[in-house]
Amino acid sequence: MIVDIPDRCGSISSGNFRFILNHGVQIVKSCSSLPDKVLIIGSGVGGLSTAIILAKLGIDVTVLEKNFRPGGLLRSYTRDGIECGVGVHYLGSLDRGQILRSFFDYLGVSEGIPVVKMGQDGVIDRYIFDSSINSPPIFDLPQGMDGYEENLNRAFPGEEEKIAKLLIPLRQAGRQLHGLDFLYSTDNDFSLLDQSQSLGEILTELQCSPGLRSVLSIPSCWIGVPPNDCPAYYHNMALASYVSSSWRLERNGSDMADVFAGRLKELGGRIVVGEEVSRINVEDRVVTGLQLRSGEDLTAGTVIGAVHPKVVLKMLSRGDVKPSYRQRISNLQDTHGIFSVHVRLDADMHQEIPYNVFKINVAHNGDVVDLKYYQIRKSEKKDATLLSILTSGKDELWAPWSETKSGYRGGDYLERKEKHAAELVREAEEQFGSFKGLKILDTYTPLTIRDWVNSPGGSAYGVLRSSSQMLATALLNRTAVKGLYLAGQSVMAPGIIGTIMGSLSTVKLILGADEFEKRVKF
Length: 522
Prior knowledge:
Layout: E1 2-6, H1 14-22, E2 26-30, E3 37-41, H2 45-56, E4 60-65, E5 77-79, E6 82-84, E7 91-92, H3 99-107, E8 115-117, E9 125-130, E10 138-141, H4 145-155, H5 160-179, H6 199-205, H7 210-222, H8 232-244, E11 246-249, H9 253-266, E12 270-273, E13 277-283, E14 286-292, E15 297-299, E16 302-305, H10 309-314, H11 323-330, E17 338-346, E18 356-362, E19 368-378, E20 384-392, H12 395-398, H13 410-432, E21 439-444, H14 446-453, H15 470-474, E22 484-486, H16 495-511, H17 513-519
Parallel strand pairs: 1-2, 3-4, 3-16, 4-12, 9-18, 16-22
Antiparallel strand pairs: 5-6, 7-11, 8-11, 9-10, 13-14, 14-15, 17-20, 17-21, 18-19, 19-20
């Protein structure tokens, strides 16, 4: 496997260099210069944030989106006049001086995205356990590291020493996250490869009780990586971002998508919607542009795929990349899909709950078997609140329709969706009490997500950032084709933070580290 390292990217530490060589990676230096024109495939947060960064640098940027509105999973959708969220349910680290606020400020979108701070009553997330293990039935995740440690010590007396050891790297992750040191580090993502021990292994080594294990495993579950294969730093970055501060959108995901799109247009960038890319044009393993489904060719010396790597691979002809690269991308494991239900409730009887609720089924050893996420929020209608339920996708339920497309799956599929949604609503009533004015607005399955945003298998979070495929995911931004890059979640962190990190990493690869440090200032 070959990794091109631009001259301006700086040096790699000797320890990490040895790691790379031991895994059969050849380092090849190449020069980087500022591109005149960039084409970006996909208008999710990765595509839009990458485009905004490049447009701020004065580069001619065009984003291609197959759907008729930009935003990808950022964008919510409307049912009965109520906005139903998809990919944005809450955000972490938006206080001044924290990482996501720094990102939003740099992109120029902070003022356009009004948010409401969570945790004012001491609770961001409430974990409700359905298990026989010896632990409190409820655990509250508060804002702040001190509050988190205090809640853990109160819930698990006698395990204070273990908790203290676990909090050391968690606090360190928070400092690293908000310090933004990673942006200008010469180690890139390779420095993380030495920290790939899984969370599950660490909890086992510390001999944590099943109850403590279950509480500490929740964050890795809601970022889509099983605890026994979740790199500890990835878990810590995710948890630190939300414990630092958590926020809800005051408006909705579509509004957020429009703010990002509007900012790009303000900077002179273009978004072309309703145009699907059919292939990436390559000559002698050098990118030359894109061909659209309509037959139109667009030329550019730099192309960025801000969609799943497997989707980008399908846009390349077999001879464009080596078989080894094609095999590496094809064999990447992805995160699971999700099933979601949006329900209208009577606002007089069901007020907004200012925190998220997780219903968790745990095995006797503390491993999480199943997890359901609930959010009850005000809606755009004064007489209605919105209940959103997210849970595992259960691919086996939708297997009979795996070869079909949205809108053409027939009555049996709709019946199965409605039945599954009704079961989830009944289970929610066991938790929250009988719902008044209940109306199921919509449901979606992994197949819905697959068809909407071209995510293989309906994966909710893209490529699995796991310990077992650490090296493969650390090397995703640069491809085997000169001038072709990928943008998406970083191996450092999940969610919107990780995606914007990935955008910055891609821009750094394109510019070179020295030019990046000169031009990208936080």
